[in-house]
Description:
The chain has helices spanning 55-65, 84-91, 134-145, 169-175; strands at 2-7, 11-12, 15-16, 23-31, 37-46, 76-79, 97-102, 111-120, 126-132, 161-162, 178-185, 188-196. The chain is of the alpha/beta class. Strand 11 and strand 12 form a beta hairpin. The radius of gyration is 18 Å and the shape is globular.
Amino acid sequence: FLGCDIQQGNMRDGKYLPGKEQRIEAYLWGFGLNRRSWLIDKYVIPGDVTDFRSGAFATLRTMIINKVFPIQPLKIFIDSRYQTDEVRKFCDRSSNIYPIMGESSLKRGYFNRVELPGFRSADGAPLSMHELNTNPIKRRIYNAMSLKRDPMTGVYPDGFMMFPADLEHSVFEQLTSERPVPKEKNGKIVGYAWEAH
């Protein structure tokens, strides 16, 4: 699948910092047997992110239509926490493109599908937003990133994540930018909150 994140950019003195302009960052992932995954490629799509018809959104749509990816994603997910309406409009009437949003209050499972009133998929069915249960997903990613290949057999364990050899270090910093902090009630740990460190 292709996972996309809308970045509003960072400004100082009315100008975007170099490399921190408005953009869409997209990650193409492959999944295999035994919960193994491969980051195939990363894309930084610069441009305005305030209008789903232009800027970075228009470039992303062109990339999808022209099938520029080395492996065509079966599903495309776009984080809609920022620019929620624009992401939903971009996904409206599209095929296999869905908005997602982290939801730490989900009690079980990894995600929950919610139909969005007024939005449709390409086949006319209601468009679904996927609410992601961020706590177990983050724990699973952190656990997977701590796995190591068996030095004796060379076998990769179940759940192992593979990354391109030339991937910039900042991607790993983003993946591990938060830490679980215990939440206590009456002296007992009742859960965890993820905080930037």
